[in-house]
Amino acid sequence: MKSNEAMPATIRIQAEPFDVAAETALLVRGRADVGAVVAFTGLCRDEGGRLAALELEHYPGMAEAEIGRIAAQAQDRWPLLGLTIIHRFGMIRPGEEIVLLLAASAHRQAAFEAASFLMDFLKTRAPFWKREHLEDGTTGAWVEAKEADDRAVERWRR
Amino acid sequence: MKLVYFAWVRERIGRTDEQVTVPEGIDTVADLVRWLKGRGEEYAYAFENEGVVRAAVDHVHVKPEARISGAQEIAFFPPMTGG
């Protein structure tokens, strides 16, 4: 099944915010074959008022490459008609967006499943690290990886 | 080859990157970690819990048994927490 040959994924790593509506419009512009777009936006929480910001460090070069490999796996597995992945780095304040994922397909099931798969792999394999900056002005700890995220990846290995 | 470090691995070692010439017999990522740990306290501290620090060779995730000959850039970093 090579229905997605002419559909390279859009992958961007940037400090700037993104516009979900504009990115969605760009993804489906001029197309009549897309029946479903699933959008996931990951936001920075304030953890009950404790956090002033999250600082995201990344590995330039590898971040793009690894997300590209994860995207290729999703495109192999589901008949996707379009894919956009944008991941921010730098200082991100509570309420601001961190990551955007748009998956387009003819029918909703492929888009839902691919979006879920992509986020599970992105969290555990894309080279990004979060550090907390606290409301009291001090620099907090590096966020620890969660076992639940590793288990989420395992469920796709069937 | 160039070594690059991220997040708390970078902080513990105290630098973002460095050029190294590894001696004969250092063939795998695990060998390289063992050699680095012998270079000073900061490296011993960064790699104190075996198996926690992850590695990538030329931008691809690898396991400790991966061979390093011909590698341009080897990265060490904690488990990832993006998304």
Give an account of the 3D structure.
The complex is a heterodimer of chains A (158) and B (83). Chain A is an alpha+beta fold. Chain A has one domain: Aldehyde Oxidoreductase, domain 3 (Alpha-Beta Complex). In chain A, 32% of the residues lie in helices and 34% in strands. Chain A has helices spanning 20-28, 62-77, 108-125, 147-154, and strands spanning 10-14, 36-43, 51-58, 80-88, 90-92, 97-105, 128-134, 139-142. In chain A, the strands form two sheets. Chain A has a four-stranded mixed sheet with strand order 1-4-6-2, sandwiched between helices. A four-stranded antiparallel sheet of chain A has the order 5-3-7-8, with no helix packed on it. In chain A, strand 7 and strand 8 form a beta hairpin. The longest helix of chain A is centred in the C-terminal third of the chain and has 18 residues, at 108-125. Chain B has 83 residues and is of the alpha+beta class. Chain B has a single domain, classed as Beta-grasp domain (Ubiquitin-like (UB roll), Roll). In chain B, strand 3 and strand 4 (60-62) form a beta hairpin. The N and C termini of chain B lie far apart (30 Å). The model of chain B has no long low-confidence stretch (mean pLDDT 96). The interface between A and B is medium-sized, with 27 and 16 residues.
The largest inter-chain interface, given as chain pair and residues per side, is: A-B, 27 and 16 residues
**Radius of gyration of CA atoms of chain B, rounded to a whole number:** 12 Å
User: What is the CATH first-level class name of chain B?
Assistant: Alpha Beta
What's the number of helices of chain A?
4
Count of structural domains of chain B: 1
CATH topology of chain B: Ubiquitin-like (UB roll)
Q: What structural class results from the helix and strand content of chain B?
A: alpha+beta
Which oligomerization state do the chains in this entry correspond to? Answer: heterodimer
Percentage of residues in DSSP E strands of chain A: 25-35%
**Widest beta sheet: strand line-up of chain B:** 2-1-5-3-4
Please give the order of strands in the largest beta sheet of chain A.
1-4-6-2
CATH level-two architecture of chain B: Roll
CATH architecture heading of chain A = Alpha-Beta Complex
- From the 3D structure, determine the CATH topology of chain A: Aldehyde Oxidoreductase, domain 3
Distance between the termini of chain A: 19 Å
* Main sheet: strands, sense, barrel of chain A: 4 strands, mixed
Number of strands of chain A: 8
CATH superfamily of chain A: Molybdopterin biosynthesis MoaE subunit
- The backbone outline of chain A, from C-alpha atoms, is globular
Q: What number is the mean pLDDT of chain A?
A: 94
Identify the CATH class of chain A: Alpha Beta
